[in-house]
Q: What sequence folds into this?
């Protein structure tokens, strides 16, 4: 599950992009005042809107700092934020818009790996850098040499979590409850890496919310006998 991103992290990432652009865009007398524009594809509405709001706040603070110091070699830095709702269908439409805009020099986002990966072929064909700084899917950077991410890869993170759960915590039977679609790949990787006698199993929730009795019944399939026998268990109480 994605965790809230600190404003400081977003500012730092924006600064990295800005510094990288320093060596690319040397000012000329006719271009000195022209802005350097970044395209951002991310959620401003929908279930992941909180993350897009954090991005926007961080970007605004970073731009105030960068442009307050004179911009990039005299050119102001700007961004265009398009609301994708982290929906792959929306991210594809946004990608087509960005690659057709000659003022956009790089793209940031999307928030979720599935939304970013749906748009990757468009950016790859156009030769526009796609910096998915929250994208951790193992296949994201395999989309081409214009796809970049500095996030820990799930193929590295999830096996380590599975090993910690089994070897350090001593857990024997594990359930994985994940979001859709952004949690599908991490859950699959976690569940496919047993670190003991019993492999973790993944339950993917349906579109409708399960009843309390259904949750309790599924809990009993994973819990130990002592856990299911305890009348004080919150799951046991839920089923009543």
A:
């Amino acid at each position: 599950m994605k965790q809230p991103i600190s404003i400081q992290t977003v500012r730092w990432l924006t600064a990295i992009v800005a510094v990288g652009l320093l060596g690319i865009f040397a000012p000329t007398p006719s271009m000195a005042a022209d802005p350097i524009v970044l395209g951002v594809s991310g959620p401003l509405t929908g279930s992941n809107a909180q993350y897009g709001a954090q991005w926007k706040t961080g970007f605004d603070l970073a731009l105030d700092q960068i442009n307050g110091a004179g911009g990039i070699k005299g050119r102001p830095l700007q961004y265009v934020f398009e609301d994708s709702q982290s929906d792959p269908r929306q991210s594809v439409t946004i990608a087509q818009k960005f690659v057709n805009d000659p003022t956009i020099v790089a793209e940031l986002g999307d928030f979720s790996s599935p939304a970013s990966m749906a748009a990757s072929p468009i950016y790859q064909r156009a030769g526009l850098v796609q910096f998915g700084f929250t994208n951790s899917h193992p296949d994201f950077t395999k989309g081409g040499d214009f796809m970049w991410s500095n996030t820990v890869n799930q193929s590295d993170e999830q096996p380590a979590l599975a090993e910690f759960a089994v070897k350090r915590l001593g857990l024997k039977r594990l359930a994985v409850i994940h979001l859709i679609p952004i949690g599908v790949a991490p859950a699959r990787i976690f569940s496919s890496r047993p670190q003991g006698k019993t492999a973790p199993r993944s339950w993917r929730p349906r579109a409708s919310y399960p009843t309390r009795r259904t949750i309790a019944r599924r809990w009993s399939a994973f819990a130990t006998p002592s856990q299911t026998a305890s009348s004080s268990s919150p799951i046991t109480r839920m089923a009543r």
Observations:
- The beta strands are 36-42, 77-83, 104-109, 130-131, 147-148, 175-177, 201-203.
